[in-house]
Amino acid sequence: MTMKKNSTNTGAESAPDFFEMITDTMIGFRETMETHDNLGVKIAARTRLILRVVLTTLIISAIYLVFMIYQMSNNMNAMTVHLEDMYSSFGSMSGDMHEITQTADSMARSISGMPLIAESMNQISGDVSAMTGSVHAMKQSMTAMDNDMTRINANMHEMTGRLYNMNRSVNLMGNDVNQMAAPMNSGPMSGFWPR
Asked: Tens digits of per-residue pLDDT, 9-42?
């Protein structure tokens, strides 16, 4: 009889110890899960902040680049107009130099009786002819510059198109980030992530 009572008491005492052990384990598990939950919330908030800062920086940079290229394109157009004016001025200057050369030639013929003056006039005529050649070469250089400016303008338009595509890609990345964040803000774990 005494042995039966002792075994009954031992079973009764071990049952509460077993429940206490399970309770302590569950409390420890709950505390660990709360710690992990808090850590996950902090990591999610920091990640979201970093993503917003990066996307904002990219969008601002893209807008600034598009604005700068737009300004540069406008300046290039004005520069092309001024180069065309210079080109036409050089054309009229070449015609004037041709008239000066003809006048100098006629003067040289008129005063050919005076050898020193005639020789000087011949030198002047040669100098004017050299100047005419130089103006003609300058005119050709201006034509080449005009062609180069046209190519630069075309390249600027192409760069503007590429920046527009980059801006579109940044917007698409923003939409993708919003779509990636959507599961965090809905569903059974909606209270888990900060808003």
From this structure: 555 556 678 888 888 888 988 899 899 889 888 9
Q: How does pLDDT run across 65-118, given as a tens digit for each residue?
A: 889 888 888 888 778 777 788 878 877 877 778 788 888 777 767 666 566 666
Burial bucket for residue 121 (CB in 10 Å: 0-12, 13-18, 19+):
buried
Nearest of 130, 150, 162 to residue 65 by alpha carbon: 162
Per the CB < 8 A criterion, the answer to whether 73 and 157 are in contact is yes
Q: How far apart are CA 6 and CA 166, in angstroms?
A: 83
Spatial CA neighbour of 156 closest among 66, 81, 84: 66
Residue 2 has pLDDT above 50, yes or no: no
CA angle 68, 69, 72 (to 5 degrees): 90
pTM for the structure as a whole: 0.37
141-150 LR contacts (CB < 8 Å, sep 24+): 142/83, 142/86, 142/87, 142/90, 143/87, 145/83, 146/80, 146/83, 146/84, 146/87, 149/76, 149/79, 149/80, 149/83, 150/80
At a CB cut-off of 8 Å and minimum separation 6, what does 139 contact? Answer: 87, 90, 91, 94
Rounded distance, CA 97 to CA 103, Å? 10
On whether the CB atoms of residues 153 and 77 are closer than 8 A, the answer is yes
